[in-house]
Specification:
The chain is of the alpha/beta class and 302 residues long. The protein has helices at residues 24-36, 56-70, 85-98, 118-130, 150-159, 173-179, 196-201, 214-225, 229-250, 253-261, 279-292, 295-298; strands at residues 7-8, 42-44, 76-79, 102-105, 136-140, 163-168, 186-189, 206-207. The protein has a single domain, classed as Alpha-Beta Barrel (TIM Barrel), CATH 3.20.20.70.
């Protein structure tokens, strides 16, 4: 990439058939929908892709198949997180060789107690960066038990300049983004854009949401960046009940429910032990979505 990535870069969910086998063709169809939604990039194999339920062979097949299918239409980030710096570096090199524009990693952790201190975080990302030539995004997510205070993130960018982007999805994200002003060329917000406007106010250049409403979020970000903050706020507030319901009631399952309801995929299955949401929750999500008629519900009819 010749410039830092910005805008809307949704996570591509891994689509499974009803028997929980990977549906690569269905996942590629989701990528086509997202590109038609006007996104600025795609992120593969992230937590909202259920990366934690995939075998290494499935990860490789998905990354290779989707990068070939996207064929450079938009930049693609591949998530390569692993506790082992050696494995993370190997995954990152493989992603680069397949055509990834960037890799994204959480800091190393395993469970609730195996964490890494600040110097260990910097050494870890340094080993990954030494294996590749493409940019690195650090994912600051509550799932990782390794803390990333502002001081460590600033030190990381200073000592590993390949780390050019960050996805901040921790509580009080806006305060952290404001404290990191000027540190990252590409700071992103997360959590399905629940705090999008405060995060943009604090310096975020984009958002990394689910695949549920990327077209609408793209319009909000473009309005904001063009100087129409009141219009962006109004559009975000109109969308917020649906985003909030996704985040708090469904999690990663919401996007699959909407994709299946829209006829984009054939199954909204998640892998056990991740089960389906109750019918009343599904009905509530669909009610909120249909009232707003988002692009996801219209794409397959177009």
């Amino acid at each position: 990439m010749s410039a830092p990535l910005a805008g809307v870069v949704p996570v591509v969910p891994t689509i499974f058939r009803d028997d929980e086998t990977v549906d690569l063709a269905g996942t590629a169809r989701v990528a086509d929908y997202l590109i038609d939604a006007g996104v600025d990039g795609l992120c593969l194999l992230a937590n909202y892709s259920e990366q934690f339920s995939l075998t290494d062979a499935e990860r490789d097949s998905l990354a290779r198949g989707l990068l070939e299918h996207v064929a450079g239409r938009v930049p693609v980030i591949v998530t390569t997180s692993h506790y082992s710096a050696r494995v993370a570096a190997s995954r990152s090199r493989a992603a680069q060789d397949m055509g990834a524009a960037m890799v994204m990693l959480m800091p190393p952790f395993f469970g609730a107690t195996m964490t890494v201190d600040g110097p260990g975080v910097i050494a870890y990302f340094g080993q990954v960066a030494d294996a590749i030539d493409i940019p690195v995004m650090v994912q600051d997510a509550p799932l990782s038990a390794t803390p990333l205070p502002v001081s460590v993130l600033a030190d990381l960018v200073s000592k590993v300049p390949q780390v050019t982007h960050a996805k901040i999805e921790t509580p009080q994200a806006a305060s952290k983004l404001a404290a990191l002003e000027g540190v990252f060329p590409g700071p992103f917000d997360g959590e399905e854009s629940v705090t999008l406007i405060p995060d943009l106010d604090a310096g975020a250049v984009g958002t990394m949401p689910s695949s549920s409403v990327p077209s609408e979020l793209g319009e909000i970000v473009r309005r904001y960046r063009s100087g129409d903050r009141p219009g962006a706020v109004a559009a975000w507030e109109a969308l917020l009940p649906l985003i909030h319901y996704e985040n708090r009631q469904c999690g990663l399952r919401a996007q699959k429910i909407l994709l299946r309801s829209a006829g984009i995929i054939g199954s909204d299955r998640t892998r056990a032990p991740f089960g389906p949401v109750p019918d009343r929750v599904r009905d509530g999500l669909l009610e909120l979505a249909r009232a707003r008629d988002p692009f996801i519900l219209r794409w397959a009819r177009g």
